[in-house]
Write a structure and sequence with these properties.
The structure is a homodimer of 465-residue chains. By secondary structure, chain A is of the alpha/beta class. Chain A has helices spanning 10-22, 44-49, 63-68, 138-149, 167-178, 198-210, 266-270, 317-331, 361-366, 419-427, 432-435, 452-464, and strands spanning 2-6, 27-32, 73-76, 78-84, 89-96, 99-107, 110-113, 117-119, 132-134, 159-163, 182-187, 214-217, 219-226, 235-241, 247-252, 254-257, 261-263, 294-296, 303-304, 311-312, 345-349, 352-358, 371-379, 390-398, 404-411. The first copy, chain A, has a 5-stranded parallel β-sheet with strand order 3-2-1-7-18. Chain A is globular and about 65 Å long.
Chain lengths: 465, 465
C-alpha cells in the first residue's frame, strides 16, 4: 500500500507517523516543499521575543529522525503542483539550494492533502519591499528574527507596523514590545476583536493601550513606501481613516503582515475535488474528500462544528494533529470518525489570558439559534484571598433549546484552562441548566466557591426563561 | 409560611437569602449556635499564614447585614437541641457572653437542617491540653492565629505537630511553614494521601520533603503531655510506630488536630430522621429528608454521586451553597433537584496544585466497575516554551462501558482548572473515547498541543480495549 502525503507539517507528519505505527509495512511518502517539518509554529512569536533562543528550539522532530526512526520516505524541497485522481499520481518539482531541480511523479493508493494554510498578503503597493514580512512558516519566523537581530544598516529596529489585529498580530505585538520595539497596529474594521463579546474585546483593547501599543482600527493601508528621510525609519506605511479619509503616515523599520490565513487548496481545486467553506477542501467525518482515495486534513480542510453540526473552517493546531491521526487510521483500515471542533482558542496578550469556545451571539444568529447572552465579572480567587484578579465571562445560550452555545473569558489569572470545561459541555451538548450543576473545583487560591463559569450560567438561566 | 433554618453557615445562609429573594413574604428564622455566619472557612489556613491579615477579612457578610438588608431573623448564639417533627417545633438554649441564657422554641412549616460538620477529635490522652487545637469554625481559626501571635510565655511558636494529613492538615502545614514554624505531620496509616493514585501521592510527598516537612506516616499517637523541660517546647506528642512499636517523642509548641470531620447529625438522629452514608442525614435529590417538611443541606447531609448514582458523603463548600439554594427553591414551591456531586476537589501545597474528580481505582472497584487506569506525565507548556513544568495525570475508565470514571492531576503549573473539564465530562457521562475528542484549548504558554488530559485519554483508550 502506497500512502502519499502532500505537506509535512502537523497534519501530514501526524498521519505519516501514526500510519507507520498502525502498520509498519505501509509505504509512506511525504512531499514537503520547504525544508522544515514538525515544528511548533504557534511558538514562533514567543521565540522571536527572546533573543537568546534559537528558532530551531521549535523543531519537535527533524526530517532525519522521521526518516531513520519512523522509516518514512520524507522528501523535503518537493513541491506538488498536480494531483491526478484518476491515474492516482501526484507530480511536481523538487528544489535544491532554492532552485528548481527536477520534476517528480509519485503513484498513490491513498493520498492525504495536508497543504496547510498560507498568509493572506493584501494587495498593497509596496508590500514586497524589504522589511515587510508575514509570519506563517518557520522560514518566515527566521526571517523576522534575523531582521531584528541584524540591526539593518547599523540601525536597530525601533518601530514596527503590524497589519491586522488577530491572534498572530497580537502575539507578534507582544513579542516586538519584548524586543523594545514600538508597535503600531492597523486594521480596516473599526471593531476591535469582532469574534469576542464587545465588553471582553474592550478589556483586551485597554491592555494594549496600557502597554503603549498604538492602535489604528478603521484604517485602510494605502501603500508602503521607502522613507526618503535617511535619518528616519526605512519605511513609511500610509494609512487612511475609512470614515474621515484622514491620512496617517506611520514610520516603520519593519512591517508584519498578519491579515489572516487562507487554506492552500489550489491543487485540490484543480484536481476537481469538492471545495467547502472558506475555500477549504471539503471532508466528511472520516476526513475523506469527494474522491474516495483522497483525504484532506489540517488547515487546508474544513470540519464539522459540534455546536452547529454544520461545516466550519477554524484552522488550529490540535485539530490538525487529530485529523492526521484519524486519516492514518482510516488509511490503515481502522474506521475513525471525528465529531468536529468547538472552536476553542486561547491566547496571551501581555498580562491577559483570552479564551473562547463555541459561538458568539452573531454566529448563533447566523445558524438559526435564538441566543441569549450574559456578561459578568467574577474573581480569580476567593473572597478575601490576596492577589485576586477580575475574570470577565460572556456566555451564550439558546432560548429555544436551553443549550449552551458558547463561552468567552478574559482576565489576568485563571482564565485559560477554565474554558476547557465549557468546551467539554459543548461536545456533550449540555443545556445551561445542566452545566450550572457541574461540580467544579474550589479552593481559595484558585477561585470563588462558585466558579466564574457557574456564576455566568446561573445568570444566563434567568435570561433563557 | 415559617421557614426555620438550623445553622448559619454556607448552606443555611444560602437558603435563607435565596428564599427571601424567591419570596419576600416568607418568614425566615436562622438559629446559629456561634456568633459567626457567612465566612470563608476554606480561607482560614491562608489567613493564618499572613500575620498582617485580620481573621475578619474572611467574613463575607455580617449577621447585621443579613438582618437589615435581607430581613432574615438571624439569631446567633442559639443552639438547637431538639427537633419535634410531629409538633413542628425546634427548641434549644440561647447563649449570652458564652453562658447559657434562656431556652427557646420555634414553630416551623418547613425546616432546614444545616448543622455542618465537626472536627473528629481523637480519643487521646492530653488532647484537651492548652495548645492542642482543631480547625473548623472561625473561632477555631482565631484561636490558632492568636496562639501563634501571642508568643505564649514569651516563647514564639517554633514547632508544631499536625495530627492527620488530609486537605486541612496539608493547608495548615503550609500556613505554619509560612510563619516559620517547624512542622511534624503524623498519621496512623502508612499510605500517604490514600485517595490519590500512588504515583501522584508520591509527588505530593516529595514536595513536603523538599520543603523540610517531617512526615510520620504509620504512627499512632499514644498521648500528649506537658513538657517537663521548661526550656523546651510546652508539649510532647508521644507517637508509636504501628509496625515496629518504636516510640518517637515530638516536641511541640502547638498541636493541630486535623483528623477529618464528621456530619453534625445528632439532632436529626434523635428526631428519628433517616440517616445515610457516613452518618450524614439522608436526603433525596430535592434535599428532602425522610420527613416531608424537613430538608437537610451542606456538610451534615449526604448526596448522590454522578458517577456511581449512589449516595456519598463529600462535604465541600460548593455543594453546601448549591444545596442551600435548592432547598430555598423547593421550600418556595420551585421544584429544584440536584443531580449530585462528582467529588471534585483541589488544593495547593507549597508550589504544587493537586486536583481530583470522580473515582479512584479503589472506589471504582467498590462500586462494581471494571476499572482501567493510566498514569502519564505531560508538560504545562508547549515544546520549547520556557518555564514548562511536569503535569502528572491519572485517569480511570470502565472497561465494561468505556465510561470515564475519574481523573487526578498534580503539578506546579496549569493543573487546577484543567480538572474542571474532566468534572464536566463526568456529569455528561462521557466515554473516554468521546472525551479524547474534545476540542480543548491550546497556546504555547498554556500547554502542549495535546492537552495533558487528552494525552491521558488517548493512552487510556488502549487499556480499555
Amino acid at each position: 500500500m502506497k500512502f502519499v502525503i502532500i505537506g509535512g507539517d502537523a497534519a501530514g507528519m501526524s498521519a505519516a507517523s501514526k500510519s507507520k505505527r498502525n502498520n509498519p509495512n505501509i509505504e509512506v511518502t511525504v512531499l514537503e516543499k520547504s525544508q522544515d517539518v514538525s515544528y511548533s509554529a504557534c511558538g514562533m512569536p514567543y521565540n522571536i521575543a527572546d533573543p537568546n533562543r534559537s528558532m530551531d528550539d521549535l523543531i519537535v522532530r527533524t526530517a532525519d529522525e522521521f526518516r531513520s526512526k519512523n522509516r518514512i520516505n520524507l522528501l523535503t524541497g518537493h513541491r506538488v503542483d498536480k494531483i491526478d485522481p484518476v491515474g492516482k499520481t501526484v507530480s511536481g518539482i523538487s528544489f535544491e539550494n532554492g532552485k528548481e531541480s527536477q520534476t517528480f511523479s509519485y503513484q498513490f493508493d491513498k493520498l492525504l492533502i495536508a497543504t496547510g494554510a498560507a498568509p493572506i498578503i493584501p494587495n498593497i503597493y509596496g508590500v514586497n519591499l524589504s522589511g515587510v514580512m508575514p509570519l506563517k512558516s518557520l522560514e518566515d519566523g527566521r526571517a523576522i528574527k534575523s531582521f531584528i537581530d541584524s540591526n539593518l544598516n547599523s540601525k536597530p529596529v525601533k518601530k514596527a507596523v503590524i497589519i491586522g489585529i488577530g491572534y498572530i498580530g497580537l502575539e507578534m505585538c507582544e513579542a516586538l514590545k519584548e524586543r523594545s520595539i514600538d508597535v503600531f497596529m492597523v486594521k480596516p474594521s473599526e471593531q476591535f476583536l469582532p469574534s469576542f463579546a464587545s465588553e471582553l474585546a474592550d478589556v483586551v483593547k485597554q491592555e494594549l493601550v496600557d502597554k503603549s501599543v498604538n492602535l489604528y482600527c478603521g484604517y485602510n493601508i494605502d501603500k508602503i513606501e521607502q522613507n526618503s528621510n535617511l535619518n528616519s525609519s526605512s519605511l513609511v506605511v500610509v494609512c487612511k481613516n475609512r470614515a474621515s479619509n484622514e491620512i496617517v503616515n506611520l514610520d516603520a523599520d519593519m512591517v508584519i503582515v498578519a491579515s489572516g490565513v487562507k487554506p492552500c487548496s489550489q491543487i485540490a481545486i484543480e484536481a476537481g475535488l469538492e471545495i467547502g467553506i472558506s475555500g477549504a477542501v471539503a471532508v466528511d467525518k472520516n476526513l475523506k474528500t469527494s474522491d474516495e482515495n483522497i483525504y484532506a486534513a489540517g488547515d487546508c480542510a474544513d470540519a464539522f462544528h459540534v455546536v452547529t453540526d454544520k461545516k466550519c473552517w477554524i484552522p488550529l493546531a490540535l485539530r490538525a494533529n487529530r485529523a492526521g491521526w484519524a486519516v492514518a487510521d482510516n488509511v490503515c483500515g481502522i474506521n475513525t470518525t471525528l465529531p468536529g471542533v468547538a472552536g476553542t482558542a486561547v491566547f496571551k496578550i501581555f498580562d491577559l489570558q483570552v479564551a473562547r469556545t463555541g459561538l458568539t451571539v452573531k454566529e448563533a444568529l447566523e445558524f438559526g439559534f435564538e441566543p441569549a447572552q450574559i456578561v459578568i465579572q467574577s474573581r480569580s480567587k476567593a473572597h478575601g484571598h490576596p492577589g485576586s484578579k477580575t475574570i470577565h465571562v460572556s456566555m451564550v445560550g439558546d432560548k429555544k433549546t436551553g443549550l449552551l452555545l458558547g463561552v468567552q473569558m478574559v482576565g489576568k489569572d485563571g482564565v485559560v484552562h477554565r474554558i476547557n470545561a465549557a468546551a467539554v459541555a459543548l461536545h456533550a451538548k449540555m443545556r445551561v441548566v445542566d452545566f450550572a450543576q457541574c461540580d467544579l473545583a474550589y479552593a481559595p487560591p484558585f477561585g470563588p466557591v462558585w466558579d466564574p463559569l457557574l456564576t455566568a450560567a446561573n445568570q444566563l438561566i434567568k435570561k433563557l426563561g
